[in-house]
Amino acid sequence: MTLFCTNCGEEVDKDGEFCPHCGEKIVEDNMVKEYKKNVYHSKNPNPDSIIKRKEKILYALITIFFVILFLGVYILMKTKGY
Predict the structure, then answer these.
(1) Which of 12, 25, 53, 66 has the maximal Cβ count within 10 Å?
(2) DSSP state of 17
(3) Average pLDDT over residues 27-49
């Protein structure tokens, strides 16, 4: 029977102690049988890609904040005659 790691989704040896890909301890209860591999990957995207996407969103929001801030200061200074 082929098993897959629930942490990374890679195939693991049932007789091994740890997943050779991510180091997760192999316990048969924590492993997913082959027919569930596609379900696992479709519902649980790579955690690194989620972090990168959140970082991009954060950087975009910070950039937008500073653009609005500088535009507000520029308009305020222009209307006050500085």
Answers:
(1) 12
(2) S
(3) 55
Asked if residue 74 and residue 57 are part of one domain, the reply reads yes
**Mean predicted confidence (pLDDT) in 45-61:** 84
Please work out, in degrees rounded to the nearest 5, the angle formed at the alpha carbon of residue 51 by the alpha carbons of 62 and 26: 165
**DSSP one-letter string for 22-54:** T--B--GGGEEEGGGHHHHHHHS--HHHHHHHH
Structure tokens at 34: 């082959």
- Split at pLDDT 50, 70, 90, the class of 15 is confident
Instruction: Point out which residues pair with 18 in neighbouring strands.
Output: 25
Inter-residue contact 28 to 17 (CB < 8 Å): no
Do residues 53 and 78 both lie within one domain? yes
pLDDT for residue 35: 40
